[in-house]
Design brief:
alpha/beta; 9 helices; binds zinc ion; 2 domains; SIR2/SIRT2 'Small Domain'; Rossmann fold; binds nicotinamide-adenine-dinucleotide; about 40% helix; about 260 residues; 3-stranded antiparallel β-sheet
């Protein structure tokens, strides 16, 4: 199948499916300028994310971890949703039955949902993602259950200047899931339910190395429903995809979903 035929086949599969599970990863934000962990620009001051995005790293050196998150927040704030995020948001607002599950913490799906909803004069909620890994635009307390939106600049010059909980005074932390931590149960339950009901699955920009996210797409395939993969590189899903569209999200999603 050439690319044009594959695109048409994928369009049809998604259009015919009453319920679609969409799973996205770091790749969908690459064209917005947010580095993927494994790609170029994924390192910060020689640290690997695996050594910073852990509860142990935060317990040992919260200043260092907050400094890294401050840098990442700044990166993301300077980025904007790309044509891929926007095509997906418009598609979700224009039809029923799509559930978006993301591993991204950059809030670009949320921003695309608001942009698309404003353009259409509607409500962004049908295009908001289920966030498996939290959001870097939120904070939560390390002691009590306080959590809030928050992406103000962080002063990480000393432990004393780090953000503190307004309720109990303990250190605040980024509201993201770190390596070795459990995922938020409500998000997992909603993603799981969507995977059990989906008539088709669309995977964009995830290598498929991180569980349980990859498992949601695989659960749809196990039920013999079609899978469409959009990614410029090889992924763990390629062998089970009904259609693999080799290309970037910004180039492929507008013609696929438009
Ligand atoms: P990954 O780094 O394992 O895989 C990224 C995938 O994106 C690769 O398959 C790559 O080929 C593909 N890709 C690269 N450019 C692309 C483009 N323009 N369009 C479409 N695809 C493209 O990412 P992952 O599977 O999401 O796992 C990484 C983990 O790191 C996740 O847990 C995630 O939470 C976290 N993370 C998040 C962000 C973010 O929020 N933007 C960024 C880095 C890492
Ligand atoms: Zn608290």
């Amino acid at each position: 199948m050439d690319h044009a035929a594959a695109l048409e086949r994928a369009r049809l599969l998604l259009a015919e499916a009453p319920r679609v599970l969409v799973l996205t990863g770091a790749g969908i934000s690459a064209e917005s300028g947010v580095p993927t962990f494994r790609g170029p620009g994924g390192l910060w001051k020689e640290f690997r994310p695996e050594d910073l995005a852990t509860p142990e790293a935060f317990a040992r050196d919260p200043r260092l971890v907050w400094e890294w998150y401050g840098w990442r927040r700044g990166l993301v704030a300077a980025c904007a949703p790309n044509a891929g995020h926007l095509a997906l948001a418009h598609w979700m607002l224009g039809r029923a039955g799509v559930t978006l599950v993301t591993q991204n913490v950059d809030a670009l799906h949320e921003r695309a949902a608001r942009t698309a909803a404003t353009a259409r004069g509607g409500d962004p909620s049908p295009a908001l993602p289920i966030r498996l890994h939290g959001s870097i635009a939120r904070v939560r307390c390390t002691r009590c259950d306080h959590g809030a939106e928050g992406d103000d600049p962080v002063d990480a010059t000393a432990r004393e200047t780090l953000p503190a909980c307004p309720a109990c005074g303990a250190l605040l932390r980024p509201d993201v899931v770190w390596f070795g931590e459990a995922l938020p149960l409500p998000a997992m339950q909603r993603a799981d339910a969507a995977a059990r009901e989906a008539d088709a699955c669309l995977v964009v920009g995830t290598a498929g190395a991180v569980q349980p996210a990859a498992g949601y797409a695989m659960a749809v395939v196990r039920r013999r429903r079609p899978l469409v993969v959009v990614d410029p590189g090889p992924t763990a899903f390629d062998g089970m995809a009904e259609v693999k569209l080799t290309g970037s999200a910004g180039a492929v999603l507008p013609p696929l979903l438009g």
